[in-house]
Design brief:
The complex is a heterodimer. Helices cover about 30% and strands about 25% of the residues of chain A. Chain A is of the alpha/beta class. Chain A has three domains: about 160 residues, Rossmann fold; about 60 residues, no CATH class; about 30 residues, no CATH class. The radius of gyration of chain A is 21 Å and the shape is globular. Chain B is built from ten helices and no strands. By secondary structure, chain B is an all-alpha fold. In chain B, helix 2 runs antiparallel to helix 3 and helix 8 runs antiparallel to helix 9. Chain B has one domain: MetI-like (MetI-like fold, Orthogonal Bundle), CATH 1.10.3720. The chains are: A alpha/beta, B mainly alpha. The interface between A and B is medium-sized, with 31 and 31 residues. Bound molecules: adenosine-5'-triphosphate and magnesium ion. Magnesium ion binds next to helix 1 of chain A.
């Protein structure tokens, strides 16, 4: 369990990134921090591995105040995946994945055999093991990044817009894979994104943030879609533009097409509602 | 034409001496090249850390190169307490010139390591020292190699100046040639020095390929699956 207690962060140049933020992240679930650029998501995420120390307030992992935990050792037991994969360009894929176990003093052989298992887990062809990151596609690099994050079998995995730099198709596949991996490994995941669909797809708990790290709403995907707490959340969801109020329209050939509030088709209804065409939820 | 044949004949007749002087030349220049690298890296790293002083340190060491070499060879022994013909004296002087070329390459190379990669390494749990050795240094490697190649050529050509003081090197072929009016000796001296500089440069390039294999592959980034399987 990760706990933020009234944390604030003002950077040395005077920028206040977070004013007063509190949150509990339950273990073995995925919590998504959702908010637009500059609202303090990365700042909050980095407090968990002490890349950023709060100016005031506390961050606790399993009731231990992080202020007294040595940062380097802490980072070696927390997985971290970032947008541009951040892979070490001078190390082969296999060595990149083995980075943290090697830092922890695991033998090269053992670290490599673990890395091979992880490549399989994240769906990477074993032939890629001896390539350098520069020889991989963006999507493959992100998979390596995820494998590296999991290499030391950390309890906590921090992910900062890990799929932000890949095309929508690859992004959706990576999201699907992450959900599959999560059912296997059940980590405590903190995932940062500004993409509402990604948040809805991945978050057991979603935290919608305004600037300054102000919490607009905390809830499950269903709670947030069904009952946005305020106009800000509603706008983020796209309620205004009618993106979230779907309707079914009968098709000439039978069955129904689902359209959004603007009349744009978004899909086909497999099981048409019986009797009436009144959509629910 | 006839002269070229004469020079070649002279060279062959004196091949023992040319080889011996080549060896002496290397004995002076190799330690200086290595020392330039070893001294410049910490200076460069410190300069980068002391942001406001960076330009002062980097440009300042760069100005060392403007020192006239001959007077330096004569002044240094007074400071070091060595003899003018002492090998240490020559190596220290050459190292100073090497540093003046190398600090900027090293500082620029280290500063050009992408910030997101350094952050990522920190996030994985690299301690600052380990990150410097394991991430910053290798990634600055190509820029440092470029600098070291210049240092190598410069050092090998500067060694010859010390021959004026009577220190043995390929430069002795010029000084002897001048004193005794043997054109062949001068020509062979120039050729041997140039050849040595060229060979050292090739060696450094090969060493770079061996130590930094990723620089070879990075350009062929979109290669088909199956490439780079090499193990
Ligand atoms: N090292 C820093 N020094 C000064 N200001 C900073 C620093 N890092 C972040 N900030 C500022 O703090 C605020 C929050 O930044 P943060 O990176 O946490 O936002 P974010 O929500 O992750 O944004 P994005 O979605 O663009 O990544 C921004 O105004 C940013 O400019
Ligand atoms: Mg961010």
């Amino acid at each position: 369990m990760i706990e933020f207690r009234h944390v604030a962060k003002t950077y040395p140049d005077g920028t206040t990134a977070v004013e007063d933020f509190s949150l509990t992240v339950p273990s073995h679930t995925a919590t998504v921090l959702l908010g637009s650029s500059g609202c303090g998501k990365t700042t909050l995420l980095r407090m968990v591995n002490r890349m950023v120390d709060p100016s005031s307030g506390q961050v606790l992992i399993d009731d231990e105040d992080l202020a007294s935990v040595p940062p380097v050792a802490l980072r070696r037991r927390i997985g971290y995946v970032m947008q541009n994969s951040g892979l070490l360009p001078h190390r082969r894929v296999i060595d990149n994945i083995a980075t943290v176990p090697r830092l922890n003093g695991v033998s090269k052989r053992e670290a490599h055999s673990r890395a091979h298992e992880l490549m399989e887990l994240v769906g990477l062809d074993a032939a890629l093991a001896s390539r350098y990151p520069g020889q991989l596609s963006g999507g493959q690099q992100q998979r390596v990044g995820v494998a590296r994050g999991l290499a030391s079998d950390p309890n906590i995995l921090l992910m900062d817009e890990p799929f932000g730099a890949v095309d929508p198709l690859v992004r959706m596949e990576l999201q699907r894979e992450l959900r599959r991996i999560q059912t296997e490994v059940e980590k405590t995941i903190m995932f940062v994104t500004h993409d509402i669909d990604e948040a809805l797809a991945l978050g057991d708990q979603i935290v919608v943030l305004k600037t300054g790290g102000e919490v607009a709403q905390v809830g499950t995907a269903q709670e947030i879609v069904e009952a946005p707490a305020d106009d800000f959340v509603a706008q983020f969801l796209g309620v205004d533009s009618g993106r979230r109020s779907l309707q079914t329209v009968p098709r000439p050939g039978g069955g129904h097409t689902v359209v959004d509030g603007g009349g744009r088709p978004v899909g086909v209804l497999e099981d048409p509602p019986e009797g009436s065409s009144e959509p629910r939820g | 034409m006839v002269e070229i044949l004469d020079w070649v004949r002279w060279g062959l007749n004196h091949s023992d001496r040319v080889l011996m002087l080549t060896f002496e030349h290397l004995r002076l220049s190799l330690p200086a090249i290595l020392a330039s690298l070893l001294v410049s890296v910490p200076i460069a790293a410190a300069a980068n850390r002391l942001r406001p002083l960076r330009e002062v340190i980097v440009s300042g060491t760069g100005l060392l190169y403007a020192m006239p070499s001959l007077p330096l060879f004569i002044v240094l022994p007074i400071i070091l307490g060595t003899g003018v013909r002492d090998m240490i004296n020559v190596v220290v002087a050459l190292t100073l010139f090497g540093i003046s070329l190398m600090v900027r390459s090293a500082a620029d190379g280290l500063a050009a390591v992408p910030e997101h990669i350094r952050l990522s390494a920190t996030a994985q749990g690299f301690s600052p020292w380990r990150r410097f050795i394991g991430v910053d240094l290798p990634l600055a490697g190509p820029a440092m190699l470029a600098g070291l190649r210049v240092v190598s050529v410069s050092t090998i050509s500067l060694v010859s100046v010390s021959a004026v003081l009577g220190v043995q090197s390929l430069g002795s072929l010029f000084t002897d040639g001048f004193q005794r009016s043997i054109v062949a000796s001068i020509v062979i001296g120039i050729l041997a020095t140039a050849l040595l500089a060229l060979l050292m440069d090739l060696l450094l390039v090969l060493l770079g390929r061996l130590l930094m294999p990723w620089t070879q592959t990075a350009r062929t980034s979109a290669g088909p699956v199956g490439r780079g399987r090499g193990r």
